[in-house]
Design brief:
Helix content is 72%, strand content 4%. It is mostly helical. The protein has one domain: Arp2/3 complex 21 kDa subunit ARPC3 (Orthogonal Bundle), CATH 1.10.1760.20. The longest helix is centred in the C-terminal third of the chain and has 34 residues. It is globular, with a radius of gyration of 17 Å. The mean pLDDT is 91.
Length: 190
């Protein structure tokens, strides 16, 4: 079976998704070493609404905008230095988050889960697994860069700075994204 190409419609949805992610980064509160933003809410809303392929392209576009210097990262920052900093692993981890969500979503689509409660439950499960992958990548990156800049930091400390304060808010953001995606599903054609 031949796979459909990436259409103009797909590109427009991906660009809108990248813009939503960028705007969500402007809501930023610094908590410990990692800022609290609404990026994961926007990322999951985009992934759940438009699908894994379009959502992952949105994430890549967002990151490319930031890398070239557009101030789309938290705190109105941009440039490669942000990505190479201690919290850059969480930004780079968004790529893996998107890819994992895309892969899991493709498996679910093949399973033909069309009933609304099942579909929503599977979206949430996919998002949680993808979030764990992003956390793991971000923490390893944080520990590596922090150790090079400041000195070694233990896994417990890194988790207490970079993951534990974000678990409950991220669960709430995933649930909100699932609700948003169900409303958006009626407007966006897959």
């Amino acid at each position: 079976m031949k796979e459909k190409s990436f259409t103009t419609y797909d590109m427009v949805l991906s660009a809108i998704g990248a813009a939503l992610i960028a705007v969500s980064a402007f809501v930023s509160i610094t908590v410990m070493a990692v800022p609290f933003t609404l990026q994961t809410l926007a990322i999951f809303a985009v992934l759940m609404s438009t699908g894994g392929k379009r959502g992952t392209v949105s994430i890549l576009c967002y990151l490319l905008l930031g890398v070239v210097g557009v101030p789309v990262f938290s705190g109105f920052k941009g440039g490669i230095s942000v990505l190479l900093g201690p919290t850059g692993g969480f930004l780079a981890g968004f790529i893996f988050l998107g890819l994992v969500y895309w892969a899991l979503n493709d498996l679910v689509l093949k399973a033909d889960a069309h009933k609304t409660p099942v579909r929503i439950g599977l979206k949430i499960a996919e998002a949680v697994i993808a979030e764990i992958v992003m956390y793991a990548f971000g923490v390893v990156w944080f520990m590596t860069v922090y150790a090079a800049q400041t000195g070694p930091v233990g896994i417990g400390t890194a988790l207490s700075w970079c993951v534990i304060p974000f678990i409950l808010p991220d669960i709430i953001k995933i649930l909100a994204a699932a609700a948003v995606s169900e409303a958006a599903r009626k407007v966006i054609k897959k």
